[in-house]
Each structure stands twice: as structure tokens, then as C-alpha cells.
Amino acid sequence: MKRYLILEDGSSYAGDGIGAMTTATGELAIQTSNYGYQEVLTDPTNAGKIIVFTTPMIGSNGINAVDYESIQPSVRGVIANDVALNITDNDTFQSLGDFLKEKGVPAIFNVDTRALVKKLQSLGPLKASIMDTNDAHAFDQIRALVLPKNKSSLVSTKNAYAAPNVGKTIAIIDLGLKHSMLRELSLRQVNANVLPYNATVRDIRSLRPDGIIISNGPSQAKEVLPYLREILDEYLGKLPILGVGLGFLAISSYLDLSLVDLPQYQNGTNFPVISQTSGEIWQTAMNIGQLVLPDDTAMTFNEEYFDLHNELLAGFSNDKMQLLAVAFNPEGAPGTADAQVIFDDFLKLVK
């Protein structure tokens, strides 16, 4: 079935529909990973986005039971150059088309994704819609669309829950938590307790945790910091704190570090980061639109990580404050295992 991707700048792209044959609107976003489409589609940080995959084909591996980052995907749509319609006949895998249909996510393939990448690089973020038509009324609708704010409130857990283990107790503030973060913590015997985005100091105190993690998520720092400020006031310097992705941005804003908008939103698995102490370079996964201006901070950090594409600060630690914050996703998923040592460094602060 012929379907259309229409953009707020008045352009449209025709392709073949797959998945749910519904209308969807959201923010068009580029995904540069060459693998891991299942993790991308189920990553809560991509909530509200219509994802454009730059890799030539997706879907050849199907969908499996292990690589979910959340049970229900919160992406609004998928755009691809090509999709593998048939996969190996195996009951343990589901085709991408069937998965998208089951989850209510529309997709279009046979689209010139290279042209979309160039457009976003020149114009910046665009509102977009997947529809059955590209008439004038459709464009009026997309221009009038108001995208939701604080999407963390939409994807965060509504009720606290435990991921029990036998080690140290960590309170996790869920701004858009990925399953793979819980997996990495479980492998390290962390007794995790997951709290909603608007958790209070009282909620954390009742758990008597040994440390706090502020997770990644789809919002902006200014949208979630009002919920986190009281917690940071209470616990920064008293309990070890790890911020990841949006958590990094919120902590940076709390510390009055200058956040710089990136030329292009960095969403993929191919972003090199260098340690200023060891000189070691990690290939990291990111899903972020801002980093920190390094020359604007008078703070002394024990470790700094720099994004080599933009020469901006992508992570820092301060032993006195018992603080570690990184813009990249240390669990990867998709991505390499290069940065998973961040979890070990955090647990050293905890112990």
C-alpha cells in the first residue's frame, strides 16, 4: 500500500506501507546505527519520534525475546530504505512487519533516506506525519501540530518496582529507563529499585539506598530538573549518584554548566569519546541533543570524557561529590561494550 511521509516544510516522500496502517505524527529523527533496530524501536528515549534508519536495510534478523528495551515501543513511526519482509522460519523470531503491526506502529520503506538525512542536517528537527495522502489539508495538520513536552512523564513507570538481587541497593529514577541498564546492574548483583520520574526525597529515603541512578530519557533537562532538584539538593555529596543521558543533562544544568545544542542530534552507536586521564577512546552509543561547554566550568573533575566529533564534554566525575555523569549510554544496546566500565566505576563510589 502506498503511504506518505509529509514534513512541516511542505515536502513529502512516498513509499510502501508496512506495519500498522494508521496515521502517526511526531518528530523526525535520524538513527545512524547499522544494527540493533529492535533496541532502537523499543528504547524509551525515542518516545514520540518517527525514526529514519540510515542503514540500507533493516529487519533481516527479526524480533527476538531478549533485545527489548521496553515491552511497548513508544516510537511514532519508522522510515527505512528497505525492509526484509521474510525471515528464517523460526518460532523464536517475529518478522519486523508483524511486530510493528502488533504494536500499532506504522512504517514506510522504499524511501530515499539519504535525502531525509541531508534535509535534517540543514533544517534541524522537523515535525512529520505518516499518512495515506499528501494533500493540502494534511500539511495544514502537521504545521498545526504541537509536540508534547516532558515525554519522560509518558514513558516513566507509574509505580515503583524492584529488580531484586543480593548486592548494594540502588534507587533508579526512571526518566526513560532501558531494560539493558537493569541487566547490567543485575550482572553486578545490584539490588535495584525503580522509581517514577517525579519521585520525592521521601520515596528515596524509605528505600535507604546505597546510591542513586538518574536514567536516560526523551525529555529536555529543563523539563525534568524541577522534579530532580530537591533530590539533588538532599543527596549530592552524601550518596553516590550516576546520571546517564538525560540524567547527565539534568545534573549538568543543576551544576550551572553550559549546555550546547549539537549541530545534529546524536542518535546511534558510532560516537567516539576520549578519556582525558588515560587517552583511551571508546566507541559509544548516544541519544542526545546537547553536551557541555568545557571551558565554561570552573569545577575540578577527577575524570572528563570528551566527544571527539564536537570537542565538548560528554562526561565527568567528582569523587568529593560522589558524582559520575555521562552523556553516552554505557550499556550500549545497541552499541559496543566499551563504556560498560562506567557501571563498575559507579559501584566503586558506592562501595
TrEMBL record:
SMART domains in the record: CPSase_sm_chain
PROSITE patterns per record: GATASE_TYPE_1 (PS51273)
Protein name per UniProt: Carbamoyl phosphate synthase small subunit
Top-rank lineage group of the source organism: Bacteria
NCBIfam families on file: PRK12838.1 (NF009475)
UniProt source species: Lactobacillus nasalidis
Sequence ranges assigned to domain Carbamoyl-phosphate synthase small subunit N-terminal in this UniProt record: 1-131
Database matches in Pfam families: CPSase_sm_chain, GATase
